[in-house]
Each structure stands twice: as C-alpha cells, then as structure tokens.
Amino acid sequence: MSKRTIVSMPGDGIGKVVLDEAIRVLDAAGFEADYVEGDIGWEFWRSEGNPLPQRTLDLIAEHKIGLFGAITSKPKDEAFNALSPELQEKGLVYASPIVGLRQHFGLDICLRPCKTYKGNPLNFIRRGPNDSIQEPVVDVAIFRQNTEGLYGGVEWSNPPKQVYDALMTHPKFKQNFGDAPVEEVSVSTRIFTKKCTERILRAAFEHAKKYGYKSVTVCEKPNVIRETSGMMYKMAQEIQKADFPEIELWNTNIDAQMMWLTKNPENYGVIVAGNMFGDIVSDGFAGLIGGLGFACSAQYNPETGIGVFEPTHGSAPKYADYPISIVNPIAMVESACMMLDFIDEQEIAKKIRKAVSDVVSEGKVKTYDMAKMTGKADVVDKDAASTVEMAEAIISKL
Ligand code: NAI
Ligand code: MG
Description:
Elements: E1 4-11, H1 14-28, E2 33-37, H2 42-48, H3 54-63, E3 65-70, H4 76-81, H5 85-88, H6 97-104, E4 109-115, E5 126-127, E6 133-134, E7 139-145, E8 155-157, H7 161-168, H8 171-177, E9 186-188, H9 194-211, E10 215-220, H10 228-243, E11 248-253, H11 254-260, E12 270-273, H12 275-288, E13 296-301, E14 306-311, H13 317-320, H14 330-342, H15 346-362, H16 387-397
Parallel strand pairs: 1-2, 1-3, 3-14, 7-12, 10-11, 10-12
Antiparallel strand pairs: 4-7, 4-13, 5-6, 8-9, 13-14
Helix pairs in contact: 1-14, 1-16, 9-10, 14-15, 15-16
The structure holds 1,4-dihydronicotinamide adenine dinucleotide (NAI) and magnesium ion.
C-alpha cells in the first residue's frame, strides 16, 4: 500500500508543540506517513484575513485525514482590531476556523471518549459508605452532533425585518419578546435536521454495539426544548426499537446529567447529544479522567471518509511562549490514536495506547497537571515533566 498523507494543522500556541510530539510518537510506533502542513488559525487571520485559507481546505479534500493541534479564537471586535487597516476595509468578519472546517466538510459526527487511566493522580474520587474512598472507572464515549444546533451560526442581533416578522408569528415570541425594541433583540437559533440527527444517533448505537456498551443515553432536554431535543429522543426510540433492541436506551436531561456525573459516572456507556449539550457533557466527563491534558476527539463524515482529529483543549496562549513547553501531550497523542482507528491502523493505535497507559500507571513521569502544580514556566525545574519528556517517556514504552 502506498504511504498515507496526513494533513497536519498545528494552528496556534501549544497546538504547534503537542502536534509535533504526537507525530514523533506516531513515527516511533511505526506508523508510516507523509505529513503536509495545513495553514490554519489566528496567524492567518491576521496576515491574510482568513483563518482557514482555501489552500488548507484543498489539502484536506485531497488527503482526507487531518491532525489538528489547536487555534486561538477571539471575539468579533478584538478580531477585527487585529487586522491591518487594508484588511479592515474589506469588511471581513472573523469566524472560528475549526467550526468552519466542521461545516465545510460536514464533519457532523464528533466522538469524545473519556476513559479512566489506571493510576492517573487526576482520576475522580468520591466518598463511599463509611467514609471509604471510591475511584469509579469511567468508560464513556460521547457522540456530539457537530454541525447544527446552537453552534450552527444562524444568528442575528437586531434581526432583519423578514426574520423579525416571522418570529412575531410565533405566539411565544410575541408574548415574551414582542415588547422589546427589535434593535435590542439577539437571536441564536437551534436547528436540528432529521438527517444529521439520525446520523449521530446511528453512529452512537453502532459504536455501542461494536464495543459492547450496554446502553446509549440521549442527553438533551426534551421536556423543555420540545422540538429539537424532542425530535432527537423520539428518533432514538425508533432506531433502538427497529435496529438495536439489545442496547438499552436511556434519557437524561443535560442539567441533571451534570449532577449525576459525580454520583454514578461508571453507569454510563455511550452518550449522544446535540452540539452544545454534547460539548458540555463531554467536558464534564473529561474532568473525571484528568481534564484537558487527556481529552481527545475525532470528527468525521462517514460518507466521505474525511476526518479531523484533535485534542479538546485550545491553544493555551499563556503557556505558548515558555522556553520549555509544560503542557501535557497525551490528549493530542490519544487524538492521533483515534485517527489510527479511523484509518484501520488499530494495531499501532493499541500499541501507543498501551504505552501511554504504562507511563501513567507507573507514575514516574508527570506533566504539571498530573503533578497538580500551578502551570508556570518553572514547573520543569521542580517535579514536573515537560511536554517533550512526556512524549519521550511514551516513546520509550513502545
Ligand atoms: P485552553 O484549552 O487553551 O486552556 C485552558 C487551560 O487548560 C490552560 O490554561 C491550561 O491550564 C489547561 N490546558 C489546556 N491544554 C492543556 C494541556 N495539553 N495540558 C495541560 N493543561 C492544559 O482554553 P482557553 O484558555 O479557554 O482558550 C485559549 C484559546 O484557545 C482561546 O483563543 C480559545 O478560543 C481557543 N480554543 C480553541 C479550541 C480549539 O482549537 N479546538 C478549543 C478551546 C479553546
Ligand atoms: Mg468545549
């Protein structure tokens, strides 16, 4: 088979550091690939007014698989002010390139697994009977709809007349918001389509079946958000009944789920949610298994086979300029493993995961987060391993 080409998109800040280290781990594990670099992020917004240049989209369309570090995003006004006067004149509006990537390629399936590493000092613990200490083993796979819902980008402040008039035809809008002057109204829509809802639900059920999870939990709020959450839960019931009767279907509300998170996280298997609630619940579960240094994700389109794999964390600008990088590369390395699963290189993925798990359970090499230190440049002079040292420890276990 010819060598694969992977589009590496380091992005900004610590994205650059962790991606380099993940590629080193991939190389050491025997994964043979060529990497072409895709430009993305704040630097390209500032220099050319586009954080997601067409040339990067072309590279992904051609090679299909992207490994992504992290980008820096800033609010609308701050982004505008960062442009040179010539670019400002063009009336450009900043939009997150990662959201742009998802929408451009219809990467509507987002998978965020959260699995406890044995021996991780950051594992969640709780008090059990007779003041005993319990450390529940979490093994949850969160499927988040990645392109629609509240992050779909259909929003207005001071909505145009047609939109406002249409809203006024809804009795609830008229009753609750009809007295507010239109220029004081902001609207962010939450649109779900049947097609994408079915795709995320089926992806969740199929994953449960393939990996032996006993339940799929729809985590939404159908009692209040009747149309969108309601549609998702109803479709889940139909899909479960028709095609996955052996898998239990559970239904939790996002707010209650966040409370149960610390009460019985070990009870959940696959969780499926819309865009925003999926974002929230996946961060919640990630917190139980070590937080942003460990949280990985895949986003893909099952029809085109295009997939982008990235840690959940951002560019952590405050750590980006340290002479020795202190951040934990495990989230990026695990994201690379998800890429390997996706392209049928499970054996190499397994090898890397075992190496990561060996390093964590041995407990000798710990980045500052695992050592429970405050993130500062001098942590590497104390007990903490640097980003590079952690990657090297993983490589040494391969
Ligand atoms: P962040 O995830 O960059 O950092 C938050 C904090 O988490 C850091 O200060 C650090 O304490 C910790 N952290 C993050 N990654 C870590 C790692 N690998 N190891 C150890 N600790 C780690 O989120 P923040 O500060 O809210 O955002 C910074 C920038 O990143 C913003 O411009 C934001 O828009 C962007 N961002 C980008 C994302 C992406 O590229 N997908 C996702 C989230 C934020
Ligand atoms: Mg998030």
